[in-house]
TrEMBL record:
Name of the protein in its database record: Isoquinoline 1-oxidoreductase, alpha subunit
Organism: Edaphosphingomonas laterariae
Keyword field contains Lipid metabolism: no
Domain 2Fe-2S ferredoxin-type: 1-76
GO MF term (any one): 2 iron, 2 sulfur cluster binding
The keyword Oxidoreductase belongs to this UniProt entry's keyword annotation: yes
Superkingdom, natural source: Bacteria
Whole-protein residues included: 1 to 147 of 195
Keywords per UniProt: 2Fe-2S, Iron, Iron-sulfur, Metal-binding, Oxidoreductase
Length: 147
C-alpha cells in the first residue's frame, strides 16, 4: 500500500508501487484533469506538483513518493482563484484545451519559484507541448499572471 496526500486528502493506493502516479490519480482518485498525452515524459500533459515541484505524473511510480504532497489541477482550480488560471481565462489561451491543465501546473510551479521569469527562463522551464500552438497566448498569460 502506498500512502501520500493528494490535494490535502490522505490517499492509500492498493496498487503496484510501480504504477505511474498519472494512473493512480485518474483511475483510483477520479482526478481526470491530469491528462495522458505521450506516457513517456515528453509532452507534459500529465504535469502535477509533487512537494511543490512540477513533475510529469506518467514518469512517477507511486512507490517513490510515499509521504509526499501531490497537487493536481483540481486543487489549483478551486474557485478559479489562482492567478495563473485567471490569466489563462483573461488571455483566452486554450484552443482544444487538452494540454492546458498540465501547462497551467507547470507555469504555477515555475512562478512559485521565480515570480518574474525572463523569456529565456520561460522557454527553458515550460517545455510542455501544445499541438494547437497556443504558445504566444501562453507567453501573454504568464506575463499577465506576473503583473
Ligand atoms: Fe506524461 Fe506526456 S503523458 S509527459
Amino acid at each position: 500500500m502506498t500512502r501520500f496526500t493528494v490535494n490535502g486528502q490522505p490517499v492509500h493506493y492498493k496498487m503496484d508501487p510501480e504504477t505511474p502516479l498519472l494512473w493512480a490519480l485518474r483511475d483510483a482518485s477520479n482526478l481526470t484533469g491530469t491528462k495522458y498525452g505521450c506516457g513517456a515524459g515528453l509532452c507534459g500533459a500529465c504535469t502535477v506538483h509533487v512537494d511543490g515541484h512540477a513533475m510529469r505524473a506518467c514518469q512517477v511510480p507511486i512507490g517513490t513518493i510515499e509521504g509526499s504532497f501531490v497537487t493536481t489541477i483540481e486543487a489549483l482550480s478551486r474557485d478559479r482563484s489562482h492567478a495563473v488560471q485567471q490569466a489563462w481565462v483573461a488571455e483566452n489561451v486554450p484552443q482544444c484545451g487538452y494540454c492546458q491543465s498540465g501547462m497551467i501546473m507547470a507555469v504555477a510551479a515555475m512562478l512559485d519559484g521565480n515570480p518574474d521569469p525572463s523569456d529565456e527562463e520561460i522557454d527553458a522551464t515550460i517545455t510542455n507541448i501544445c499541438r494547437c500552438g497556443t504558445y504566444p497566448r501562453i507567453r501573454n498569460a504568464i506575463r499577465h499572471a506576473t503583473r
